[in-house]
Design goal:
mainly beta; Immunoglobulin-like; 6-stranded antiparallel β-sheet; about 0% helix
């Protein structure tokens, strides 16, 4: 109410002044200045101003602020306001304030001055922690929030020892860490930190507290390291703790930095081996023990230097394009000091590695040409060098596997050609491999080109080449073939077919008149019947020597005949040869084994009471009615025998007229052979035999005479004449 009355009075005065004549210099109303101005620092920071309103007529108040002595308007507040808060202050600054009351154009004198300094911001996040290496040392960390500090003050209070904090240290600006210790064990400590700006300080950060406990194990003590190789160092230490959970070994290439974990071990272990190290390198080691609460301090540091080591191992071992004959290996050479590379190989199912080869240095491939087709191989290799007489090897590469493909067959071998008769050669060979689809047999005659004979089964090991000419050399070879390719040819073997034996002049006894087998006293000379038929030694016609054997039978009786018979049991291999003569006035016909007339040349085989009779048939061109043998002169009769293969051939004057590939295919081994020349009594009255030769005959039982009255040891020859009965005359030939 007083303020209202004062304002009314003021307006009245102005009104009256307006009526004054002297209105050029009106009187300005006066305002009393405020008093009791104070400045209070608040958090934020901000400064709160308070004053006493000493006037009754002000319209408001004007607040001024000075920084460093120069005043400037800050703010205006209304009538009766006595408080103002300045929020535009900055840390580290000192602000001065004064207030004036005003009424219209009148301004009071300034109030008293009040000042306030803005301190630096206090640090935040103050945290204590025990040092990892020494639990009696406390590490303090905080966050620097000020931009104007000149330092920090750290204070500590010990629980149970007074209540006052003691300053530990004053730190430089921007500090965020302080280490206190070593301290007493199992003691509670309180810490606080504040920011300094010359003599101005921030509020305290903290207090925080921490107790110094020692739950960690004691540090181990390192012992000298032992170098094991160029890549291995063995470490030893003494375990000084009783409560550790384990040990950690750290390694560094320098004594003071770059530590890294080399190994982590269980409790109570006092050694370890550090493997995989570089050669010619010095390594430093330290150890600490740990448990759930932390770890001990570090042990002392030891060091060791590895010697020169093996070369770096190769890598990237691969196999390229294996064939049935070779395997190409390639790898990457990672070393620059190897003496060479060492390769090993093993077969599937035999995992023991065997040495394959060593190479020169810098070689990056190898060809294994000692492989088998369709086989699984494994390979690996390493690098090596020699240092002071010792061979140093790198680690082996991982093994690679390769399966060689199937190849062409292996050549047959041990080919053998064997003559089995005059026109037949038996071949045999050994199979080189089991993967041939067929065998190609080739033959060469003389200097002619090789000629394919036959394609045989891939597993064939023999062949009989038949219908060959006599007295000819034949060469043979074979090779194996499949879809992949061909083998080489086998060895070449040759054989010559049998030639007709040359006639030989022998002492067949016709000149000696000797009879050395029963009937006792009988000689070659023999007369039958009425004395008109006989077998006797004659000088009329002869081929060699002075005599021959004459067969004379002019009787035309159907049951009469004269025969020269050569009898053999179980014949082996050999020749039966003789010369025959038929007079010019006779007609010669070669014929079968019937009862027809004329001369019969035949071979008769007997075994197991069965008979085979082979003869020259009269329908064979050139061998009847005088044929190709010279009537009235001597001609040669030849039989070649092979009882092993059971075949024979029959020739006249070196011309083959008959042969058999198997004369007794179904008989037992007890085979008798009779080679006979029969003179019929129709048109031939006389026939002559000379130079009888039985040679190279092996084996055989005793010869039984046709009449059963006696035996002759083989080989034997006999002559026989039938004239109304079976009368025999034998002569042994050895």
């Amino acid at each position: 109410m007083k303020k209202l009355l004062a304002l009314i009075l003021v307006f009245a005065v102005f009104a009256m002044a307006g009526c004054s004549k002297n209105d050029n210099n009106p009187a300005a109303p006066s305002v009393d200045p405020p008093s009791g101005l104070t400045a209070q620092l608040l958090a934020g920071p901000s400064i709160k101003l308070k004053w006493t309103d000493a006037s009754y007529n002000e319209a408001g108040f004007k607040i001024e602020r000075a920084v460093g002595g120069s005043w400037s308007p800050l703010a205006e507040v209304g009538q009766g306001v006595k408080i103002y808060t300045d929020n535009s202050v900055a840390e580290g600054m000192t602000y001065s304030y004064r207030v004036r009351a005003y009424l219209m154009t009148s301004l009071s004198d300034p109030s008293n001055e009040a000042s306030s300094a803005i301190p630096p911001r206090a640090p935040v996040g103050l945290t204590p922690a025990q040092d990892l290496n020494d639990p009696t040392i406390i590490n303090l960390v905080w966050t620097d929030t000020s931009t104007v500090e000149t330092g920090y003050e750290v204070q500590r209070r010990i629980s149970g020892v007074g209540t006052e904090y003691a300053t530990l240290d004053t730190l430089d600006a921007n500090a965020t860490f302080y280490q206190d210790g070593p301290l007493a064990v199992n003691t509670l400590y309180y810490y606080r930190v504040r920011t300094l700006m010359d003599t101005v300080t921030s509020d305290w950060s903290g207090p925080v507290s921490i107790r110094t406990t020692v739950p960690w194990p004691n540090a181990p003590s390192m012992l000298p390291a032992e170098v094991k190789s160029s890549s291995r160092i063995k470490l030893f230490w003494e375990d000084n703790a009783w409560n550790e959970d384990g040990m950690v070994v750290e390694r560094s290439l320098s004594a003071g930095a770059g530590w890294a974990v080399a190994d982590s071990l269980r409790a109570d272990v006092e050694s370890c081996v550090d493997d995989g190290l570089a050669s010619e390198t010095t390594y430093y080691y330290r150890v600490f023990a740990y448990n759930a609460d932390g770890h001990s301090g570090y042990s002392n540091v030891v060091f060791a230097t590895t010697p020169e080591g093996p070369p770096l191992p190769p890598s990237g071992l691969t196999v390229e394009a294996p064939s049935h004959q070779e395997v190409l290996l390639r790898w990457t050479d990672n070393s620059n000091d190897e003496l060479g590379f060492w390769l090993q190989r093993h077969l599937r199912g035999t995992p023991t590695w065997t040495d394959l080869a060593t190479t020169d240095p810098d070689v990056v491939f190898y060809i294994d040409n000692d492989v088998a087709e369709a086989t699984e191989y494994y390979y690996h290799l390493n690098a090596f060098k020699i240092v002071d007489g010792d061979t140093l090897e790198s680690t082996w590469t991982d093994a690679v596997k390769v399966n060689t493909p199937e190849g062409p067959p292996v050549a047959p071998y041990d080919l053998t050609a064997t003559v089995t008769n005059m026109h037949e050669i038996a071949l045999s060979w050994r199979i080189g491999s089991q993967n041939a689809e067929y065998i190609l047999l080739e033959r060469q005659t003389g200097n002619e080109d090789w000629f394919p004979v036959d394609d045989l089964s891939g597993l064939a090991s023999g062949y009989t080449d038949t219908q060959r000419d006599i007295n000819i050399w034949y060469k043979y070879r074979v090779k194996a073939i499949n879809q992949i390719g061909e083998s080489d040819f086998s060895n070449v073997d040759s054989a010559m077919t049998l030639a007709l034996a040359s006639p030989a002049v022998v002492d067949d006894g016709f000149e000696s008149y000797e009879v050395d087998q029963p009937p006792s006293g009988e000689q070659w000379n023999f007369t039958i019947g009425d004395g008109t038929s006989w077998i006797r030694v004659s000088e009329a016609n002869r081929h060699g020597g002075t005599k021959s054997l004459n067969f004379h039978d002019p009787d035309a009786g159907a049951d009469n005949y004269a025969m020269m018979l050569l009898s053999l049991d179980q014949v082996g291999t050999g020749v039966i040869s003789c010369w025959l003569f038929v007079p010019n006035n006779s007609t010669l016909e070669l014929r079968g084994g019937d009862s027809n007339d004329n001369l019969v040349f035949g071979i008769r085989f007997r075994g197991d009471e069965r008979y085979w009779f082979t003869s020259i048939y009269n329908n064979q061109a050139g061998y009847y009615q005088g044929g190709s043998y010279p009537v009235g002169s001597w001609f040669h009769f030849l039989v070649l025998l092979n009882s092993t293969n059971r075949n024979y051939s029959l020739s006249f004057n070196n011309v083959l007229v008959n042969e058999s590939e198997s004369y007794l295919p179904n008989s037992s081994s007890n085979v008798s052979m009779f080679v006979g020349v029969a003179f019929s009594d129709a048109e031939i009255s006389d026939g002559y035999l000379d130079d009888l030769n039985i040679s190279q005959i092996s084996g055989g039982a005793l010869l039984s005479k046709g009449s059963g009255n006696g035996q002759l040891p083989p080989p034997a020859a006999a002559v026989e004449m039938l004239h109304g009965g079976d009368v025999e005359l034998f002569k042994t030939m050895r």
